[in-house]
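This part of the workshop introduces the protein records we will be handling. To make this concrete, we reproduce a full record directly below.
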Amino acid sequence: MTVSKFIRKLLKLKDVIVVRFEFRGRNGEFHLWVKPLKNGALCPECRRRGRILRTMDHRLWQDVPICGWSVLFHYRPREIMCRRHGRVQELIPWADAYARVTYRFEYGMLLYCQLMTQKGAAKILHVPKSTLSDQLHRTIGRLREGHRIRDLKTIGMDEISYCKGRKYATVVYDLDRSRVVWVGRGKGRETIDRFFNEALSDYQKGQILWACCDMSAAYIGAIEEHCPKATLVLDRFHIVKALNEAVDEVRKQQWREASDHERKVLRGLRWLLFMHSAHRSKKDSRILNALRKGNRRIHRAWVLKDEFEQFWEYGAPWAAERFIKRWCTAALQSRLEPIRDFVKMLRKHVHRILPFIEKAITNAKAEGLNRIIRNVKNRASGFRSLPAFVDMIFLTVGDLDIPAQIPVKFRTV
């Protein structure tokens, strides 16, 4: 076995011939002079052999390191005349047409950046961090170029903070696949309209059957305007949160009006009132039931909150609607203003809450993706620009598997 063939097998090089090699110990670099297998001269578009016109300037590509050595490829590409596509640069089998790194380097870079900080990935790949960041942005942009959102049936919307100074971005999720499909700067109606107008066609809007969001007027208005066939379901978490806040407001009012002796009874009730009935112990229930004599207003608010939990267990929409009407009547008769305010909100959005009985969709998957996105942001100690943050979002939880876009034969890391 020749040395060149040994190097090809060691580095798992395909469609490449090693002409000569050189170690440069001072820089820790392993240089390879290579050329395409069978003399190349293939058109990058149609893969047909063309007539060689001239040899271009010398170029250098960085490959993945091996045994602590940085590996670099040397080659002088040729310009060819293709019968179909005219004057073009010949196909470079180990890298994209005008890239400065090989496909294998890109694949390793994408994998490492999914799992660790860019600083750590740059150290493993033997490149400066700034160089890796620029290369990562170019690679993700190229691999996502032309990508379109497909088979979007159930969407969720939420906003995330990406920088100090209350800078927000709107994130749109495919709840069926638990993936992010779009990220836009801002959280107002203009941002959401931009998603529907630029990212989706009229046909795709008509294909959306379900949508889930919080009680933001911007989200609700945009979904109902752009997706006439979609059934909007308000997120269960935000409904429960609004009711808990109403109960807590009753507790605060009673605390402010209570004497020092009465406050001893009310101390420590906040988290007990928030707790779901399935998670309470018998001791906790006894404490709350004792409020019937100690403070009837807090006790009444707690009972109403516990009763409302039954709504999420209904299987028939007509039965759930009847329960809502009865519960609202009882809540209005409680003479608790925070609870009454919640009832007003409930009646306003009841037609957007009842569909939950038919299809129990929530933004729970979106919140799980948000946790991953926050981990990405915290791992990087924040991002200076939104595009860099968006790149990492698409790399980690995007609807396109970006590393899988690298040809299989180059996935050797």
About this structure: Residues 260 and 379 are 47 Å apart (CA to CA).
